[in-house]
Every structure is written in structure tokens, then in C-alpha cells.
Amino acid sequence: MLAQIGITIAQWLVVVLGAPVLAGVIRKTKARLQGRRGAGIFQPYWDLRKLLVKEVVIAENTSWVFRLTPYVAIGTMLLSAFIVPVLTTAAELQFLGNIILLMYVFLLSTFFLALAGLDAGSSFGGMGSSREMAIAALAEPTVMIAIFAIALRAGSTGLNEMINRAASDPLLLLNPGHLLAFLSFFIVALAETGRLPVDNPSTHLELTMIHEAMILEYSGRYLALIEWASFIKLFLFLTLLGNIFFPWGVAVTLQPGAVAIGVFALVIKLGVLALGLAVLETALAKLRLFRVPELLSGSFMLALLAVISFFFLR
Amino acid sequence: MKLLLRKILKTPVVTESGISTVDADIETLGNALTKEVRKLFGRSLNIREVDPGSCNGCELEIGGLNSPYYDLERFGLHFVASPRHADCLLVTGPVTRNMADPLKRTYDATPDPKIVVAVGDCAKDCGIFAGGYGVVGPVSSVIPVDVVVSGCPPHPRAILAGILMALREFRGP
Amino acid sequence: MLNSAAMLTLLAASLMLFAGGAAGALVFDRESGRCRRMTHGLALCGTVLVLILGIAGLTGNSFELLLPRILPLAGGLALGLDRLSAFFLLTIAVGVIPSTLFAVGYTRQYRQEQALLGFALNVFVPAMMLVVLSRNVLTFLVFWEAMSLASYFLVMTEKDRDETRSAGWLYMVMTHAGLACLLIGFLAMLQATGSFSMPEWARAAEGVDSGVRSLVFLVMAAGFLSKAGAIPFHVWLPRAHPAAPSHVSAMMSGVMIKLGVYGLIRIGFEWLGPGPGWWGVLIMIVGAVSALLGVLYALIDSDLKCLLAYSSVENIGVILLGVGAGLVFRSYNLGSLAALALMAALYHSLNHTVFKGLLFLSAGSVVHVTGTRITEEMGGLLKRMPHTGAFFLIGSLAISAMPPFNGFISEWLTFQSLLLSFRVPEQFINLVFALCIASLALTAGLAAACFVRAFGITFLALPRGQAVEQAHEADWTMRTSMGLLALACLTLGVAPVLALRVLSGAVNEFLGAAPDLSFDWSNIAAASAFGTIAPLWVAVILALLMLAAWVGLRVYGANFSRRYYETWGCGRAVQTADFEYTAAAFANPFKRVFAFLYRPVEETEIEAHSESRFFVKTITYRHESRSIIEDSIYAPIVATVRRLAAKARTVQSGNVHGYLLYILAALLTLLLFAK
Q1: Residues 6+ apart with CB under 8 A from A197
Q2: Is the distance from CB of C456 to CB of C376 less than 8 angstroms?
Q3: Does C563 sit within 8 Å of B102, measured CB to CB?
Q4: Exposed/middle/buried for C11, CB within 10 Å: 0-12, 13-18, 19+?
Q5: Which residues of B touch C573 (CB under 8 A)?
Q6: Is the pTM of this model over 0.90?
Q7: Measured between CA atoms, how close is C561 to chain B, in angstroms?
Q8: Which residues of C touch A155 (CB under 8 A)?
Q9: Domains in chain B, start-ordered, CATH in brackets?
Q10: Fewer CB in a 10 Å sphere around the end CB: N or C, chain A?
Q11: B102: preceding bond cis by omega (within 30 degrees)
């Protein structure tokens, strides 16, 4: 029981505290790829700490929805951090819900961010909201079909079972359905976390923004909460990609040795994924907004193929 | 893509090391920030660039700051799109009549604590545009300025030094 | 436990109350205030009794009633109550009670039409109740028609407006086309089984040729789907529902269309006996298409009530996905999955009654005070109508299936039952299910976008029009009724256990199989551990974490000072409502992505000064989209009917002798056939 509580809190802390570092690592890697020295990997922490001492400037037109949204954003992500198995599949708190709940919790935070974008009454915010909702909506079928593809193989939509089942399959990577599902989920993860080629996280031009445009009105502690929430979201998506599709190393028991391996495996997986993301973002240009649906429908087709391959190969 | 990756692998980190303030002509005016805030800003500072009437010479040099060679991100500096996200306004050029009000609004839209860095001779004293019918005056005539970086245009290194000077203890000329 | 006599007394009492309400409407037709309070008050009391009846039925009480003297032609008036009927009684009551309470304040604006409104309401509600209780053909048809007619008159309340009249006409045509389908189906079954009683059909269905049953299923499904507003029979719905007063819209969208679903469930699972799998596949396809097209049309509509009506089409689609999946599972002898799917569908229909009622009522109070239904003219209402706005937000969250509200639970159940389809050992069916999962997921995403737009454009930012600036909060009856529904949204989402318990009882009795679902206060698990969720804990932990974030900031010592300043507009001098994103702009990405469907027509006219074309005086932007279904299905039908009607006009000579001749000829023909 004590071990349960301990590991649950430990996993949660890994997500919540590790998320800014992951974002820092990606930025640092990108800088190195561009031949720059770049900021240190703890830079996101300094940014957050600074934002907390700044005052908040709120647009006069806004309502309480604007002030509630940062808390919804961080609350949903902190909740999700409990649901995703990060180090071990032996923690019990995943009884909260399965992967479908997780996706809807993400959608809840997007819902509120989009409302907040509209609340200030500026053109940028509305533009960001509209685009964010369009991309979120178009990504949804891919998410569900990819989940279906994984659930078919695992016989469950519970995250622990999915990972356990995948870990016990020695021929995992030879399975075409598995790889197709990975690819489609990867593309969706790019879209959902606002990375290139869907959205440019470091853009300064309002007209090309999606996520950034929605939060243009936020400042101070509100901005800190939203930024932190988006770091956590990125961390969770990469963890899901790493743990569901490459489940090796995730501890299936609560023995200290297994958990230690789990930590090690997580660091390696996230490191590889972060490197991949950085290379991708250095090599790719942002897609035109109206090309994004084509990318997403492509990923949908991949996911559907994954499902079909299961039914025709079983 | 292959070409690009090969190029990435071949190119070393080109960022210059350290920062020299020798050739910079910098004047510190305001000193309103507390020590703690200064320390925080020293680690992380978001900059919003405002151009109330510059000839874009300074902008070219500021653009240079983002290049791999000067790489301002290594100091925790970062350009942002909204004054709400900013801690520092980087103002260039003389303030023209049409832009005086937007400059004031931008300043007010930036949450406290904040610093203002005026870049270039025009921002300092209107430079060659002084006395022009469309010019209101230097930046300091519209919003309080903390640091002035002279030059027409100033060297990127000087701009960088100016921003950093505003954050560290003011040591005097 | 109540005995059947007590149940019948309840039924009689509620009918008396409705009759009293109807009589009151006629007696006090000159005194609009008294008429309003009396008719709605009595309807409210009558519906409370319906609620009690429904709850009693769901806890296992039942009754049968046969009155051979009434309607002797077709075996008398036959009524009966089982758990399925009781569940729909509950749905009716849950939708009607807040709507009538709302109407007490809301219908104050209709002085002239008060008597008609009150009378029609007091016919409409008991008719819906009796449809659910009907156990033979004629009883069913009589009350079905009474329901349709009463709702027609309710729609026609604002009959001075052209759009109302055309909507009413379309509704009348569609509902009678549906009735004709039902009649054909009923007569065919009558012929095949020789019985008027529907429970007897269920017993005799095994002996009926399966081809006949399938035909009857198709025809009757068309009839019921036209009442439910499923695509392609939905054309009346987005016109009639917005045209009606808002409390009527809430009842029609929230309750009446569910009776179409009720009929479909009855014929699919019971009256026509066990059917082949393609019945279910067909219903699923109709459901998937309805859900997707419904939400896509809702997404671009700028009329607030029209948007809600299209979203009803969408939700009917989601319900049909569950019903269809249930039919498929049953045909493959997967009883517990069929029960799960049906349970998801029924739960969603109850939830839809709650949140669509809430949304229509709050939209009604907005329309009431602003005098417009166009979202482009609204904005900033949250500050002027804080309660209504908060209720609308709750409704929007619930209908977008956001945890921890009720829509999420039923959509989650629907997803679980669809995902479990891999147990069906046929690849074609598996593929259909996969596509249905995709379309449901897309629907969910689009619905979220749709309601971000609906709430955001209507209630947030600055007012876009004069009328909105003077808006004020609704009166207490209206707010109370919305508050009740909002509370129900939260309760059914956080603690679904009560609803699930009665539902699993109802489904178990109806299908003879327990749903593959275990649940208690803290946890719901579908198919043992295939999917689990703990709604109560999710809600509690989410709330705690949000609070913890706030406390954490306080403890850390974050800067809590706050300064209000104008919205950032790049330093622009004036920031007015004209700079806001409009509803049309918000929907534009979707319009472009789904252009093949909307087939949008856009026109931009720029009028410039005569001196220079760079000085623009006005810009007019018009955009409309066409309905692919109306163009490709209804337009040819209407054209054909018109052509035939033009030919048939030659028969109409205007000569009385001629007409007498027709009557004689008809009589003779009938007599010949009767022999």
C-alpha cells in the first residue's frame, strides 16, 4: 500500500517536474542542430519562475472564463499525469480511467483554451481558437482508430494492460499493424502538442500561430500555468508513444530494481524521441494551414490500415 | 533532407564565446528593478521589439541577434510576439506621431516589472530625424527608458551588452 | 412496490390533470395571465406524476390495461408498462418538467396565443406518454398522430412569420409521410400475423417470412427515423425546432424525437422478432451519417437555435450508433454486448434530453431578451446574463462529451461497445464498426468545436449589436428550470451509478441479457477490464488539482496582483467588437476542409470611393452553403410530385356533378373489392 502511494506520487512528480526539462532538452538539441549554443536545459524552469513574479495584465473585455482557463489547463494535465503509466504498470491509480478518458481530458483543456482565446475579443485569439479546434477535431478520428488498433491487440483500452500486453510480445516490431499505429499516433501527437509541421512553437508571427495565438493575452502566473500545462502535455504524449509502442523497460512490479530500470528506460526513450522531434523540426518547414488536414487524413489512413491488418491477419 | 542533415553534421557550433562590452556605448538611466527581479531576469528575459519609426537599420542588427553567431537564446533571452509575454521592450528609432500612442499602449500592456531598452541613436535623441515634422521625440519622451544603446546602427554585440547591462548591477562608467 | 391498481390511479390522475389543463386553456382563453399559469401549472403537476410513474416502472412495477369499449374496431385501447416504456416515461418527464416550468415565465410574451399554447401542450405531453404505453396498433397510431398534431400547433405559435408557416408545412408533410410508412408497416404485420397487438407480433414473428419482416423493418424504420430526425429524413427538424417557442423546441428536440428511437428499438428488438445483422448495419450507417452531417451543419449555422437543432440530428446519430450496434451484436448472439450497446444508446438519449433541454432553454432566454437568433449579432452576454451563460456553458460541455459531465459517460459507453465489436467474427462487420468509431470520434471533435463557437461567439468578448447591450438576466422560473437541468448534467456525469442501475435493469428485462458492465459508485468497467473509468474520482481529483494549483501558487508566493487593461490589438487605438472573430470566420477552416459537402458559395463585393479604389467604402461578404441532401434527394422528389400534381389537376373540374360521379365510382370500386 505504501509502495503504491509512493510510486504513484513518484511517477506524478516525474511527469510534473520532468516536463519542463524535456522541453528544455528539445530546445537545446534544436539549437545544437542549428549550430547554436542555445539555452540550458533548465531554461523552461527559469522562464516559469520569472513568470510567477510578474503581475497579471487582463484584457478588460474578458470574463471569468478567461481567469478559470489556466487552472483548467493545469488541472487537466496534472490529472492526466496520474493516468499515464510512466515508470511502471503496477501502480493502481490508473483505475481513474482508460486511454479514452485521457484523450477527452486533453480535449477538455483544449476546449477551455479555445474559449479563452475568444474571450478577449481580439482577432488573433479567435483565429487561434478556430484553428486549434479544427486541428483537434480532425485529429480525433486518428486518435480513436489508433487506440482501436492497439486495443485490438491488447484486448483492453486500459493503459496498463496495453503496455503489459505489448511488453509480452516478442515479435512486436515485426507486426505491421503496430508500426502503422505508431506512425499515425506520432503524427497525431505532433498535431495535438502543436509541433512542426503543424504548428511552430517558436513563431513570432501572429498569422501563422495556432496554439500561441490563443494564449496571446495571458501573462504572469496564468501564462506560467498554461506553459507548464503544455510542457506536461508534450511529456505525456512522448511517454505514451514510448511506453505503448516500445514497452521495454517499463516496470511491471514495484521492486526497486525494476523501477530503477523503468527510470533508465524512460530517460532513454524520451531522449530518443526528443532527438527525433528536434531533427524533424529542424528539417521540416511548417505546413500551410490548409495542408494540415491532408497530413491528418494521411495519418488516419495509416491507423485504419493498422486496424485492417489486425482483422485480416488474425 | 539528406543534404541538410549532412550540413548539420558538418557544421560546428559557430556561436562566439562570451560577450565583450568593450566597444559598446551604453548608458543606463533607470534603476528601478529590485535585486531579486534582476536576478530572475538575468536567467530569463522575454523581449518584445517595438519599432515606432525606425529606418529598419537597427532591426537588421537585432535580427542578427537570433543568428547562430550571436545566439541570444544562450543568455535566456527570447523574442516574443505579445507584450503580455514580455519583460523587456526593445525600442528602435525616433518616435513618430502615429506611433507614439501605440508605443504607450504597448508599454501599458506589458506586465510589471519590465525594462525598456532604447536601441540606436534615433531612439536616444532622434538622430538625423531630430526636428522632423513627423517626429515626437526620443523614446524617453514617451515612455520611461532604462538603458540606451548608442550607434547608428549599434553592433549586435552592443545591443546584447546593453540588454545584459540593464539586468546586472550597474557598475558606473 | 405499487400494485397495478395504484399505477393505474397514477396514470388516471395525471391524465385528469392534463385534461384540466386543456379545459382551462379553453375556459380562460381571454385572460392570458391566468391561462398561462393554470395550463402550465397543471401540465407541470401532470408530468410530475408521469415522473413518479416512470420511476415506479423502472423499479419493477408494471401494469396491463385493455379497454375493449374504446376503439372497438381494433381490439380496444391497450396500454401496458414495462421497464423500457418506464425509462422513456422518465425521459419525457425529465425533458418536460423543466420546459413547462420555464414556459411559465417565458410564454409571457405570447399574449394572443396563450390558449392555443396551453391547450396544445396539455395534449402533446399526455400523447407522448401514451405512445410509450401503447400496446396495440390503433392505440399507438392515435396517440402518435395526436402527438404530431399537437406539436404542429406548438410549432405554429408564431404563425405570423413566413418562416414559421413554411417550417410547419414541411413538418406536417414529413410527419405524415412518416405516418404513412408506419401505417404500411403496421398493416403488413397485421396481415402477416392476424393480430392488432404488438406483444403478440413478437411471439408470432418467428413464423413470418423473413423477407416480409425485413421489408416491414425498412418501411417502419423509415417512419420512425423521420420522427427521430435522422439523415436523410431530417429536413423538417432544423426548420421546425427553431421556429417553435424555445420551451417547445426543448421538448421536441429533447423528448419527442426520442420516441422515434423508442419505436425503432421496439421494432428492431421486439415486435418484428430477431432480425439479420444488416438491420443493425443499416441503422449504424444512418447513425454515423446523421452524426457527422448533423454536426457539420451545426458547425456552420449562425442561427443559435438552428445550430442546436442540427446538433439534435447529430445526437440522434450517436444514439442510433448504439442501437444499431446492439442489433448487430444480437444477431451474432452476443447478448451481453447488445445489452451494453443498447444501454449506451438509452443513456445517451436521456443525457441528450437533459443537455439539449438546457441548451434550448438557455438559448431561449437569450433570444427572449435580445430578440435575435443570429449569433453574429450577439457577444458579451456572459457579463449581462451570468447565470444563463454559466448554464449554457455547462450544457455545451456536456454535449461536447467533456468529463465530468453526463455526455461523456454515454459517449464513453458507446465507444466501449463499438470497440468491443472485434468479438464479431466477420471482417466486413469489423470494418463497418471501425469506420463508425472514426466517424463518432470525428463527430465528438467537431461537436466540441461547434460548441466552443456557439458559446464563445454568443457569450464571450464584446457585444456585437445594440440589442445585446441592453440584455438582462432571465426571471426566476426560467433560471430555476435551467439550474435543475444543469444540476442533472453534473449528477448524471459524476454519479452515473443510479441511472446505470435502472438502465441495466430495463435492458436486462427487455433483451433477456445483462449488459457486460459492472459498476459501483466509484468505478465503471465495461467487459470486465476492457475499459474502466471512475467518473466520481475524476471529478473530485480534477477539482482538487485545480484548487491545488491555486494553493500552490499562493504558497510559492507568486505575484497575485492583477491589472485590467485593453485587449492587445497591436497598439491600435480603438478596439471594438468589429475586430472580434465572427462565427463565420470561426467556422471557415471547417468550411474549407469539408468544402465538398458544404459546396459554399462566396461573394465579396467591395465598393470603393470614386477617386481611388484603395479607399474602400463598404465591403459586403456573403456566404451560403447548400445542403447536399436536400439538393440530391429532396429536390427531385419535390419536382416529381409537382409534375404529377399538375397532371392530377385535370381531374379537379370544379363541377359538383363530376365530384359526385367520383364519389360513386370510388364507392363502387371499394364495394367490389370488399366482396
Answers
A1: A190, A284, A285, A286, A287, A295
A2: no
A3: no
A4: buried
A5: 101-102
A6: yes
A7: 10
A8: 530
A9: 46-167 (3.40.50.12280)
A10: N
A11: no
Interval C178-202 mean pLDDT: 89
Please answer whether residues A211 and A199 qualify as being in contact, where contact means their C-beta atoms are separated by less than 8 angstroms: yes
Nearest alpha-carbon partner for A277 in A177, A213, A201: A201
pLDDT of the residue at B17: 64
Q: Give percent of chain C with pLDDT exceeding 90.
A: 53
Residue C208 binned pLDDT confidence (cut-offs 50, 70, 90): confident
Residue among B87, A220, B32, A13 at smallest CA distance from C558 = A220
Which chain A residue is nearest to residue C592, measuring alpha carbons? A290
**Bridge partners for C80 per DSSP:** C64
The residue type found at C294 is G
Contact criterion met (CB below 8 Å) for C455 and C397: no
Q: Which of B15, B37, B41 sits opposite A37 (nearest CB)?
A: B15
pLDDT for residue B173: 33
Query: pLDDT at position B25, please?
Result: 65
Residues 159-178 of A with CB under 8 A from C: 161
pLDDT at residue A184, rounded to an integer: 93
Do B101 and C573 count as a contact with CB atoms less than 8 A apart? yes
Chain C residue with minimum CA distance to B111: C563
**Residue B40 touches partner A, C-beta closer than 8 Å:** yes
Q: Which residues 138-157 of A are in CB contact (within 8 Å) with C?
A: 138-141, 143-145, 147-148, 151-152, 155-157
Residue B172: the pLDDT is 37
- CB neighbours (10 Å) of residue B66? 17
**Cβ contact, residue pair B73, A219, below 8 Å:** no
Residues in Cβ contact with A125 at an 8 Å cutoff, skipping those fewer than 6 apart: A116, A117, A118, A119, A213, A214, A216, A217, C581
Judging contacts by C-beta atoms under 8 Å, the chain B residues touching residue A212 are 81
pLDDT recorded at residue B19: 58
Q: Do B37 and A53 touch (CB under 8 A)?
A: yes
Cell 531612439, residue located: B123
> In this predicted structure, what is the pLDDT of residue A299?
92
**C-proximal residues of B, 83-122, CB under 8 Å:** 83-84, 99, 101-103, 105-106, 108-109, 111-112
CB atoms within 10 A of CB C64: 13
* Residue C2 confidence (pLDDT): 67
Chains that touch B (3 or more CB pairs under 8 A): A, C
pLDDT at C286: 95
The alpha carbon of A260 is separated from its chain's Cα centroid by a whole number of angstroms, namely 24
Cα distances (angstroms) measured from residue C543 to each of A92, B104, C546: 20, 40, 5
pLDDT tens per residue across span C295-319: 999 998 889 999 999 999 999 999 9
Average confidence score pLDDT of chain A = 89
Indicate the residue of A36, A43, A205 with minimum beta-carbon distance to B44. Answer: A43
The share of chain B scoring above pLDDT 70, in percent, equals: 84
> How would residue A172 be classed by pLDDT, with cut points 50, 70 and 90?
confident
Chain C residue nearest residue A228, CA to CA: C549
Residue A24 has pLDDT above 60, yes or no: yes
Contact C394, C361 (CB under 8 A): no
CB distance from A137 to chain C under 8 Å? Answer: yes
Neighbours of C612 (CB within 10 A): 8
Name chain A contacts of B105, Cβ cutoff 8 Å: none
Lookup: cell for C363:
438559448
Q: Do A53 and B40 touch (CB under 8 A)?
A: yes
B126-154 pLDDT tens trace = 888 888 888 988 998 999 988 888 888 88
> ipTM, 2 decimals?
0.95
Distance CA C485, CA C493 (A): 12
Cβ neighbours for B79, distance < 8 A, ≥ 6 positions apart: A204, B46, B47, B48, B49, B66
